[in-house]
Please model this.
Amino acid sequence: MKKFLVTPTISIVRAMKILQKTAMKSLIVVGKNRKLLGTLSDGDIRRGILSGLKYNASIVKCYFKTPYLLEKDRFSMNQVKKIMNDEKLYLLPIVNKKKEVIDCVTWEQIYKGKNKNLKNQLNDIPLIIMAGGKGTRLAPFSDILPKPLLPIENQTVIENIINKFHNQGINRFYVTINHKAKILKSFFQGMNTDYTINLIEENKPLGTAGGIKLIKDKINSDFFLTNCDVLLNTDYVNLFNFHKRNKYQVTLVAAKKENSVSYGVCELDKDKNFKSIAEKPKFNLLINTGIYVLSKKIIKLIPSKKKFDMTSLIKKAKKRKMKIGIYPVDKDSWADVGQWTEYKNHLKKTEV
Model:
């Protein structure tokens, strides 16, 4: 239980790392003598970030201060199941008469991975992998082999992507291809899998969104979309539920990144007069990872047989006043291996 306990003074970024390391969706916030102060879910963190909280700020302003709890020897497993199902909770703290945390109950303990397998939520949800690009950032490798076959962690990058989604319940995969399509067809024909991979060939390059239109008759639900050179360790069930719960037409997965300026920066007041100098200021940014959840309704905005990128699709959706959301993730959970520098950095991180 200790690994689920945090104090209110820890930073948001530290809490995100703990959630990722423990593979839990919630933590218990405690004070002196483990007195229960609240709970902190990944949803609480995302709402805090999107409201403007800095990544190095403490969790004080974003943790839930009136949590559901269980009193020692005064609850049944049926009550626990009802609370977890009704409130969509993954963890409940158990307290003594002094409201000190003595234990907790998790979703996994209650259901033991049997008849409440969360993976089932994604069984019918498709993933589209955009793999038709030339991969010019990876030349000369991409001059010989297509980018999706870049070797990483004892497999190709596209196998890595597929396995990450399949391990969380995805069974329907669509891969758009164009550049060196014959090689990719041969590669996938030799694979023996327990899931379905459909290759969709573009007669000409259609960009990072244009190929979706070729699959419009096969998509009957909201779906995942990813570039073929990005890796993300996250809870895809939670991501999909976040998208549906907030009724977004587009959900962008964004990695938080802190950038700094190596110089003193002059700040001006509203009249453009000198105000102060900020020494080596830091800026928090949300970087588009190239991974999305999209409503099937978004497909109608994509032109047929024309090159069309995701940036254009998002602008078009925004102009139509469609609801667009951001799902923040920790930068260490994401890797863009479509350029040599980042590819080499990722290899170093994964070497053990």
User: Anything to note?
Assistant: The chain has a mean pLDDT of 89. The chain has ten helices and 19 strands. The two ends are 27 Å apart (CA to CA). The chain has two domains: 2-111, 118-350.
